[in-house]
């Protein structure tokens, strides 16, 4: 239908909830480079991954089937918040004075306020089906940890979480949420693992990083005979998130629109992949009604896509994980303590990195002050206070809208708003009071030092 000039929300009925996840590996112009064993440097086998993941998730990781059916038990839980709404940001458009049409897919309506349960629920489900009693994981800001704790409570599976220390200390309410759902949460680096003890011996005041927390969670998984869950980066995780884009395509059709530009924030790549992969699939199959651009927005303090090297690297700091070819800043790179804790990761998802190498997507890096400025404007116009991570997508959409203001083009912009910021208000307090830390600049020397330690492949 055509734009009626007043509609703000586009809802899909529960009957339109996707029945299958979309797997972009079926449509890639070139296949992904293989994941390598950290010891042999040979392509990894399912048996190599079995200590960490149940076999169904391993199959999904390597599958090239276009669609993988969503189990009904997972869809039953999805129905508590899915399909999520698509909004037309009419108030933001007016405030910017742009002729652009801005739409956003809002994932803050989930029980934990972010997109993360889209993969937490199926990951715990498949572990439960395999007879697993306990899973371990890491979390930055706590969005992923909260989602896994929620999913664990749905299926009665024990959850142990290692939260990046700087976020553990500055975002206590996310920890409290995890613990209320029944999970155990520890600040990382901790003295519970050999990896944590090693980091603390080198730097007792280490703020932690997602790479360190992954090392601890993987070590704890192996030692305790548990399984490991990951909130981003891996192929099956990004695939679970495609329910976002699948719904968005139907909702854009309801609005009588199709994007000229799709924008998403990127740390590990799950929210970004979730909204853009179904649209890119249309492009690869030559089914897209018109050309469109895709823009990934990352923090300038942790710019893996814009300044990282495309190379094989470990997913964790200590070197316990398989080697994945992706854009990386080096596995022992220590990101500054910016408030977008979920984006403080040294590497990017292999699929997102591959698409960047194929020039199918663009990437920009932005500072946290300009992101909070965008988030405050969004809150004062649209009424939603985004999470610091989501502010990167808001900033990216505003950049595109202001370009349209300069050129007079009436482009359609779609972005993913991956979570609300109600548990990130201390960061907004710092922005409002003018005490937000200045944006850190990653020097060429520091980047070179981190990249110098890449494994030899």
UniProtKB/TrEMBL annotation:
Keywords in alphabetical order: Amino-acid biosynthesis, Aromatic amino acid biosynthesis, Lyase, Pyridoxal phosphate, Tryptophan biosynthesis
MF terms in GO: L-serine hydro-lyase (adding indole, L-tryptophan-forming) activity; pyridoxal phosphate binding; tryptophan synthase activity
Pathway: Amino-acid biosynthesis; L-tryptophan biosynthesis; L-tryptophan from chorismate: step 5/5
Residue stretches making up the Tryptophan synthase beta chain-like PALP domain: 81-419
SUPFAM superfamilies, per database record: Tryptophan synthase beta subunit-like PLP-dependent enzymes
EC number(s) reported in the record: 4.2.1.20
GO annotations of cellular component type: cytoplasm
Highest taxon, organism lineage: Eukaryota
Family to which this protein belongs: Belongs to the TrpB family.
Name this polypeptide is given: tryptophan synthase
Species: Gonapodya prolifera (strain JEL478) (Monoblepharis prolifera)
